[in-house]
Amino acid sequence: MKREARDTPKSVTLGFEDDCVTLPIDAILPLRALGKSAKSSRKYRQIVASIAQIGIVEPPVVVRNPDKSATWLLLDGHLRIEALKDADEQEVECLVSTDDEAFTYNRQVSRLAPIQEHKMIRKAIERGVPEEKIALALDLNMSSIRRKARLLDGICEEAVAILKDKPCTNAVFDALRKMKTMRQIEAGELLVNANNYSVAYVNAILAGTPQAQLVESSKPKKVKGITPEAMARMEQELARLQEGIASIQDTYGQDHLHLTVIKGYVGKLLGNARVVRYLAQNHPEFLGEFQTITEITPAEAADAE
Prior knowledge:
Number of helices: 14
CATH superfamily of the domain at 16-97: Conserved hypothetical protein from pyrococcus furiosus pfu- 392566-001, ParB domain
Domain ParB-like N-terminal: 21-115
Shape: flat
CATH topology of the domain at 16-97: Conserved hypothetical protein from pyrococcus furiosus pfu- 392566-001, ParB domain
Protein name: ParB-like nuclease family protein
Largest sheet: 5 strands, mixed
Mean pLDDT: 81
Distance between the termini: 53 Å
InterPro entries: Chromosome_partition/occlusion, ParB/Sulfiredoxin_sf, ParB_N, Plasmid_RepB
Number of strands: 5
CATH architecture of the domain at 16-97: Alpha-Beta Complex
């Protein structure tokens, strides 16, 4: 009996060439023009300050120009290149991409979360980097650097783990710092579940926190614009909301599995022309509902639950 040949795995295509190349800045052609306000933006000022202090951290990404071998097309790093031009630099080390689709780069950038920035600053300070140099590199004043370095003071490890990659502002941690450990964890979960990290929302959580769960439990809560009666009602509403969220979380996985199985089964039914014809003739209202079920997307399913 003849054995079937096994499929050999295909080679993986690399996204970049193995080595960086040093190119004349004049030979790099941008694929888009910078906006009029680009050079006045905080991001541009931070790039300029960073280059002045420590040079280019992340090389620009270029691709070979298929029409002119002496020039290169700039896929990512337009602000960096512009900052280098303003600094009268003549050359820059670049990554060479094997793909010329520029739109994929900026869409896949993972922005630095405040906790990650805090850890980066703390690690630099522990390694002996002066706070003044860090402030210059990030284009921040000294008080901002010190505040970022103390960001997690008074925050429990569990809450830090919950919010480690979330876009929380300093004000969020200021509010959490007023809560005891267990309440910090609950508040972190509320922020994540609601996908809302605004100051207004965390202040609402703080306002709805029972007095006994505050660090200064003997000191009466004072929230601007909220009366003690309204605060008591808010505490009760928040407690009910937490109970509702907890009950949903307990059955979320099972409900999602049931919905997925039902959607697959109904999809197979509607793949049968005889079934569709029967439903259209005898139960058109069922057919419409079944078709709606098969068209549910994962996001819509999450919203429905």
